[in-house]
């Protein structure tokens, strides 16, 4: 999305050499790539690989420019090269970074503003991709945690390439000429870089998906494929034109077909991104021979030419608008709203192209004096980074401290839930707790990460009264772990030893689970569950409480198999129904709707999703003699599940209850558990 070509129309074939400075097919492919990106991000089409195509284009165009200059002069003018990059990239980027910060402050969640600004600072300095690696960001997460700057990861990789590429190529060409008197060593070096980088991306995907997805070293092979093709362009241009036409059409088909075969469940980058990359290489390679009936016949048209011209601006504008649009409009994010984002971001891209991008690109003074271009880019970068630093001092639209020194009340009775349904304004006391709400999670008990394949008993898994006369096991996924603090309190009061057995995303019921974070079948859950069952035989608990998140993939035979194993331990079984799903990030919603918190509440029929699964699991539990604790009355009343009950925020994200609210549920849970323990 970030490289430029001259936008004059193609000359007649008779006047055209095979190797051309302007490639209409590349301009058209650039337009296809940005449309793929925007369509995928906005949920218009489930098509991936647009960024991968763009990486190849950048490598081919920039590699071609550098190699041509090396052939002509034996060196590269770094000042001229970087000045061209600065003139092209930096001014539009600065406008979008600063503009996004303003929109985020006006409309976004105050709780995320500081994090957004840190992302904006990283984006302005071209290393956001490494910040996303550090924070373990899931690029395809759809839980309201996305940053409006997240798309700058790919620009960061390209800009890192622009810094290093001219230096590396000059050195490699010089060494290659000294040893082989040709470019053989350069080609070998590029092929080795491609192989090594691809292997790192493929091998790291199952181990550390954020590193594989955002890492420069795991993605640079895609850009390097373009550079290698630029190096081979004189040879490739001699291809038979009939064969070249077939190659270009097959390449375009490969891009589109493989892009549609990739889904959000595909482990990325892995090997899947090789499809769009290979397809892009084939389109460009076929076009090098300038065949009369190649894919250029489709790609060379005024519409794609125009879209290609504004593609950089469209890439910059669509994602921030997409992330902030729900906050700006306060409407459900329907397909129609997504289409509005597509259209509005395109219009913004057109304005950005003509008002900013073209002005700097064609500025006579900057073109004639490259040092001015470098200075302008450096000054713009420093100014943008400085603006992000200053933005951290901007006051947030939120009270920062509670006016009350007493512990805020939460659940006191079912009547307190009903009363909270009708509350519309967020009290100052609750506002004061909002900044800490995202971290208000269980501090007692243990939970194993996704990668852990086996449950191992350890000290932090034992809470309550470790020397208690009876043992209660709380078993499940993160929706069991969220109860740890209140079970710790109840265990201390009743002198009960509480053992927590929890693993993120892992149901204690025996069925196959696809893990969306790992992008594959959750085999670690299967092995962990078996080891946990084996540990139960050693512990011989008096009571086992089973609770987990309701999932559409749940199967009756899996629930039957699990409860049969649990029944054989001889323990008294308890099935605690899953908590309601709020459907959005609650702290963010409350922070942006202080005066109308009803917008953060959810209808009970929506919050208690997968009703058939919940009913099935309850039936199976009752079949095996389990007592049922229905949690719904502690969260919902009169068909509404409020986001704030009493003066407690109920959820710390879009799914899990806060530790503070769970502790107030002692009076809800303890009587039932005490009776069950007496019978055990």
Topology:
Elements: H1 24-41, H2 50-73, H3 78-107, H4 110-124, H5 128-135, H6 152-180, H7 184-204, H8 209-214, H9 216-236, H10 241-261, H11 274-288, H12 296-299, H13 302-309, H14 311-329, H15 335-361, H16 364-368, H17 370-391, H18 414-421, H19 428-434, E1 462-464, E2 470-476, H20 478-481, H21 484-494, E3 496-502, E4 514-515, E5 520-521, H22 523-539, E6 543-547, H23 556-567, E7 572-576, H24 586-592, E8 602-603, H25 604-607, H26 611-623, E9 627-629, E10 640-641, E11 644-645, E12 648-649, H27 659-664, H28 666-679
Parallel strand pairs: 2-3, 2-6, 6-7, 7-9
Antiparallel strand pairs: 1-3, 4-5, 8-10, 11-12
Describe this entry's structure for a reader.
- This protein is of the alpha/beta class.
- The chain has 2 domains: 291 residues, no CATH class; 266 residues, Rossmann fold (3-Layer(aba) Sandwich), CATH 3.40.50.1110.
- 58% of the residues lie in helices and 6% in strands.
- The chain is built from 28 helices and 12 strands.
- A 6-stranded mixed sheet has the order 1-3-2-6-7-9, with helices on both faces. Strands 4-5 form a two-stranded antiparallel sheet.
- β6, α23 and β7 form a beta-alpha-beta unit.
- α1 packs across α13, α3 runs parallel beside α14 and α6 packs across α9.
- The termini are far apart.
């Amino acid at each position: 999305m970030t490289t430029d070509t001259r936008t004059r129309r193609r000359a007649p074939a008779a006047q055209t050499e095979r190797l051309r400075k302007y490639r209409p097919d590349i301009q058209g492919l650039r337009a296809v790539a940005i449309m793929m990106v925007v369509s995928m991000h906005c949920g218009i089409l489930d098509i991936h690989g647009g960024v991968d195509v763009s990486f190849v284009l950048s490598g081919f165009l920039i590699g071609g420019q550098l190699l041509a200059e090396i052939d002509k002069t034996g060196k590269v003018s770094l000042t001229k090269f970087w000045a061209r990059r600065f003139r092209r990239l930096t001014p539009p980027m600065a406008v979008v970074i600063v503009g996004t910060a303003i929109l985020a402050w006006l409309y976004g969640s105050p709780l995320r503003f500081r994090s957004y600004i840190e992302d904006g600072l990283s984006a302005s300095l071209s290393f956001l991709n490494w910040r996303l690696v550090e924070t373990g960001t899931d690029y395809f997460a759809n839980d309201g945690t996305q940053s409006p700057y997240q798309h700058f990861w790919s620009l960061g990789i390209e800009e890192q390439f622009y810094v290093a590429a001219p230096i590396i190529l000059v050195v490699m060409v010089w060494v290659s000429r000294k040893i082989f008197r040709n470019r053989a060593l350069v080609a070998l070096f590029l092929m080795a870089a491609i192989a090594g980088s691809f292997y790192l991306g493929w091998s790291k995907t199952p181990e550390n998906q954020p590193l594989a997805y955002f890492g420069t070293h795991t993605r640079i092979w895609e850009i390097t494929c373009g550079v290698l093709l630029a190096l081979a362009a004189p040879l490739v241009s001699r291809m038979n034109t009939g064969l070249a036409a077939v190659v270009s059409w097959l390449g375009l088909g490969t891009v589109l077909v493989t892009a549609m075969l990739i889904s959000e469940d595909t482990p990325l980058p892995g090997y899947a991104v090789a499809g769009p990359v290979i397809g892009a290489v084939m389109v460009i390679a076929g076009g090098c021979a300038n065949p009369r009936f190649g894919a250029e016949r489709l790609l060379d048209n005024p519409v794609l030419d125009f879209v290609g011209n504004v593609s950089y601006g469209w890439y910059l504008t669509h994602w921030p608008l997409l992330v902030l649009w729900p906050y700006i409009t306060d409407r459900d994010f329907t397909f129609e709203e997504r289409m509005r984002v597509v259209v509005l971001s395109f219009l913004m891209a057109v304005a950005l192209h003509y008002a900013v991008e073209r002005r700097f690109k064609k500025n006579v003074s900057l073109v004639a004096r490259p040092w001015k271009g470098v200075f302008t880019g450096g000054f713009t970068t420093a100014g943008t980074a400085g603006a992000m630093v200053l933005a951290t001092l901007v006051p947030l639209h939120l009270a920062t401290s509670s006016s009350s020194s007493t512990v805020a009340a939460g659940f006191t009775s079912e009547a307190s839930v009903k009363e909270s349904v009708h509350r519309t304004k967020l009290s100052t006391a609750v506002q004061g707790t909002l900044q800490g709400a995202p971290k208000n999670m269980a501090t007692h008990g243990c939970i194993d990460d996704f990668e852990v394949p086996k449950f191992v008993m350890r000290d932090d898994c034992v809470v309550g009264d470790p020397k208690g006369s009876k043992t209660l096991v709380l078993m499940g996924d993160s929706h069991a772990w969220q109860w740890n603090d209140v079970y710790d309190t109840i265990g201390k009061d009743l002198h009960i030893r509480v053992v927590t057995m929890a693993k993120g995303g892992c149901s204690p019921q025996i069925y196959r689970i696809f893990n969306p974070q790992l992008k594959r079948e959750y085999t670690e859950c299967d092995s962990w569950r078996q080891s946990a069952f084996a540990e139960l035989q050693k512990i011989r608990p008096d009571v086992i409480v089973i609770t987990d998140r309701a999932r559409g993939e749940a199967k009756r035979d899996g629930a039957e198999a699990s409860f049969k194993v649990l029944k054989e331990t001889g323990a008294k079984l308890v099935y605690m129904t899953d908590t309601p799903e709020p459907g959005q990030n609650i702290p963010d919603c409350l922070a942006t709707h202080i005066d109308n918190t009803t917008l953060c509440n959810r209808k009970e029929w929506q919050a208690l999703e997968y009703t058939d699964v919940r009913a099935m699991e309850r039936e199976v539990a009752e079949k095996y003699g389990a007592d049922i604790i229905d949690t719904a009355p502690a969260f919902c009343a009169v068909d509404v599940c409020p986001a704030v009950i009493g003066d407690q925020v109920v959820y710390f994200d879009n799914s899990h209850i806060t530790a503070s609210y769970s502790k107030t549920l002692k009076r809800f849970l303890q009587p039932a558990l005490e009776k069950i323990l007496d019978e055990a």
